[in-house]
Design a protein that fits this description.
Elements (H helix, E strand, L loop, with lengths): L8 H6 L1 H22 L17 H14 L15 H10 L1 H11 L4 H6 L2 E7 L4 E5 L7 H4 L9 H4 L3 H8 L3 E3 L13 E8 L5 E9 L5 H24 L4 E6 L11 E5 L5 E4 L1 H7 L16 H6 L6 E5 L3 E8 L40 H5 L19 H13 L6 E4 L6 H10 L8 E5 L8 H6 L17 H4 L4 E5 L6 H13 L1 E2 L8 E2 L3 E6 L3 H6 L5 H7 L2 E4 L9 H15 L7 H9 L5 H16 L11 H18 L9 H11 L4 H8 L3 H8 L7
Parallel strand pairs: 11-16, 11-17, 12-13, 13-16
Antiparallel strand pairs: 1-2, 1-5, 3-4, 4-5, 6-7, 6-10, 7-8, 9-10, 14-15
Helix pairs in contact: 2-10, 5-10, 21-22, 21-23, 25-26, 26-27
């Protein structure tokens, strides 16, 4: 974990503003040293003003957009406030971002909140406020609008720090009179975008105040805070099983938030990096080996004392100090020299012919017999995708064979049925396993960004485009697998472009005339009936027949004949991640009775909650979440109404449970059995006294 360097400890306990000043001064000094030493600087580095708009240009461009949106200076802000339920779902979706910001970043800057009249605001990539910290001086929440669920976009609120940072993709400070709407000119906003480990914009961090603070300090602070969040997201995603390298031009700055970060697998492949690393090294780092960047091999990194910084040369010219942070979980692997690229398998006798219909799933195809694959720990082996359900066994066998053919696969299934788990297993058991599996949730990407995300774009192709451009998700999947989840949500205009890519096997980025050939295995998934979507004109018929080579239906959990075995298998996998109690037969029977409307995703959540509540004790029904029993009770009441009129057809539980308890003299088990509900429900509606059974 990044810690505040020792030379900043005094400032952590005295003044967050002083901390920002010191860090910014050190960063400026460091960048000057870098220029003097001739270190590489990326094209989007702040020092390259020739390619960067001035602040005045950005504000003017924003005001022009506001006029195009039909706003005038007297317009009232339209926050498009989300309902509480939708906001709760949104916060759950961004739980990692929220917890990282609040628990791992803000404590370093907590004195800003106590010593300054300002608010810190975290918003998602669509401008919805997720949470705020601090006590503002500028009136009630209704007046300033910085409350959870409000959306701060330029279209609704005019020029503002959050909305303008989202459009430009860069940090910006909007002064009082620079706000387009007069209603917002009571404050100054400083905002900086947050990018995740995939370099996708996931949110914005903002500091807003009506006080006349040293605004340069505030602007620098919010940029440091966003860098801190990005770095912690990388650590959260990779620290368990990967080596992390931080590097800087100054040895005392290795723990600072502006150090470059590289994430390495055990072979030295760079699997992720922060923005600072790409800016400093001025090149695309994705999937390069560490020996292509620094003059060191991965075996030397593994054996170097982790507390001792190294002095290394980057790309044969530039000197950096490097610190190695080992994985939290040291994974022991036995060397297998057959994994080397130059390994040639010994010749074997011609194998006997076997009927493919009776071939067990454990038997790999000819391709996999010559390429030994170590699948990641989070990938379920093909043989373990089914546990006795003949329908699932058949579709696994069919899909596995089709993976080596130039035939697309279309998976139908309910939300949470395990479509992505299924695709990951297929990918890692195919000849494409050494290349990337790129999973795209078409419903999660804003409609206006789908095209640029999929096909990529040249620098400057549109407002908000990154200076260095983007190769796009389709090209990232070159020679690998492209998984388009929820493809029924794809906008019609994007469907047309995707069809051309699939027909011509080339991609043309937005704003470019260049074409790039692509070799992808296409797997699509949907929980919609695409044929009905075609009839309704919401999905192109020609695209439907292009993606539906092999159509398979992944059954819902409630429909599987191996439900009991599958529940036991998932529970055992979860126990490998975190120790927990075994499942009793009574608990398995209870879980099998459940209708599981949320499918595998819901099952995993219920088991995790139960294991956490049991705390290594025997897992009992009262350890499970209440909503688990709501579904069971609905089934029980329905069955009771149909087959047990003596218990009171349609009698509400709040009357039925006390009556049955009285009849059975407080016997909870007999009451639950007769009412067709769980013991938890009896406790809930029975108002039992302590000791009743």
């Amino acid at each position: 974990m990044f810690t505040v360097p020792h030379y900043n400890e005094h400032f952590v306990h005295s003044s967050g503003v002083c901390l920002a000043v010191l860090e910014l001064e050190m960063q400026d000094e460091e960048e000057q040293q870098q220029k003097t030493a001739g270190a590489p600087v990326g094209i989007d580095a702040e020092c390259d003003t020739s390619l960067t708009q001035t602040h005045k240009d950005r504000i003017q461009a924003s005001w022009y957009r506001c006029e195009q949106f039909g706003l005038d200076h007297s317009s009232r802000p339209d926050f498009a406030t989300l309902p509480k339920g939708t906001l709760s779902d949104l916060m759950d979706q961004h739980r990692s971002l929220l917890e990282t910001t609040e628990n791992e970043v803000l404590p370093y800057y907590e004195n800003i909140l106590s010593n300054s009249a300002c608010m810190i605001v975290l918003a998602d990539r669509q401008g919805h406020v997720l949470n705020t910290w601090g006590q503002p001086r500028f009136g009630s929440a209704e007046e300033h609008g910085l409350i959870g669920g409000n959306q701060w976009t330029e279209m609704g609120v005019g020029t503002n720090a959050i909305g303008t940072a989202l459009i430009t993709g860069e940090a910006i400070q909007v002064g009082r009179d620079e706000h387009f709407l007069r209603a917002n000119r009571f404050m100054v906003g400083s905002a900086s975008p947050i990018y995740n480990a995939k370099n996708d914009l996931v949110g914005v961090l903002d500091i807003s105040s009506d006080a006349y603070l040293p605004q340069d300090h505030t602007f620098g602070m919010v940029k440091l805070m966003s860098l801190s969040v990005e770095n912690r997201l990388i650590f959260s995603a990779f620290q368990q099983e990967h080596f992390i390298l931080s590097f800087n031009t100054n040895v005392v700055s290795l723990d600072s938030h502006w150090s470059g970060i590289l994430v390495l697998d055990e072979n030295g492949t760079i699997v992720s990096a922060n923005r600072r690393a790409e800016v400093v090294l001025a090149r695309d780092l994705a999937l390069l080996n560490i020996n292509q960047i620094f003059d060191i091999e991965m075996r030397e990194i593994k054996h170097h004392p982790f507390s001792l910084p190294m002095k290394l040369i980057a790309m044969g010219r530039y000197q950096f100090y490097v610190k190695v942070i080992p994985p939290v979980q040291q994974i022991m692997r036995v060397p297998d020299f057959r994994q080397r690229a130059d390994y040639v398998a010994p010749s074997q006798a011609e194998p006997m012919v076997i009927n493919e219909e009776t071939l067990p799933i454990e038997k790999m195809s000819k391709v996999e017999n010559t390429v030994l694959i170590n699948i990641p720990d989070n990938v379920i082996p093909l043989a373990e995708l089914q546990h006795g359900d003949e329908r699932v066994e058949r579709l696994v066998r069919q899909s596995h064979k089709i993976m080596e053919k130039d035939i697309p696969i279309l998976i139908h299934g309910e939300t949470g049925a395990g479509k992505e788990i299924f695709v990951r297993s297929l990918h890692y058991h195919s000849s494409r396993a050494k290349e990337m599996l790129v999973a795209v949730n078409c419903a999660a990407i804003p409609a206006e960004l789908v095209e640029s995300e999929l096909f990529g774009y040249e620098k400057g192709a549109f407002t908000g485009a990154q200076n260095r451009g983007s190769i796009g998700l389709i090209r990232r999947a070159h020679r690998g697998t492209l998984f388009l989840d929820e493809i029924g949500e794809m906008p019609m205009a994007v469907q047309s472009r995707l069809l051309r890519v699939l027909q011509e096997r080339v991609v043309t980025p937005l704003g470019s005339t260049d074409v790039y050939p692509v070799d992808i295995k296409l797997i699509s998934a949907t929980n919609r009936t695409l044929k009905e979507e075609v009839k309704e004109g919401r999905f192109r018929q020609d695209l439907y027949y292009r993606i539906s080579g092999l159509n398979i239906e992944l059954p819902a959990l409630r429909e599987r004949s191996d439900k009991a075995e599958l529940i036991q298998y998932l529970h055992n996998r979860l126990r490998k991640e975190e120790p927990g109690p075994a499942l009793s037969q009574a608990m398995v029977n209870l879980l099998v009775k459940h209708p599981w409307p949320g499918n595998m995703r819901q099952l995993a959540h219920v088991l995790k909650v139960g294991m956490a509540m049991a705390d290594e004790e025997v897992l009992e029904d009262w350890h499970l979440p209440d909503d688990f029993f709501d579904d069971l009770d609905a089934i029980g009441q329905s069955a009771m109404a149909e087959s047990s009129p003596t218990t009171g057809q349609n009698e509400p539980l709040e009357r039925l449970i006390p009556r049955l308890l009285s009849e059975f003299k407080g016997n909870v088990s007999q009451t639950a059995k007769t009412a067709g509900v769980s013991r938890n429900t009896v406790y809930k509606y029975g108002k039992l006294k302590d000791g009743s059974e």
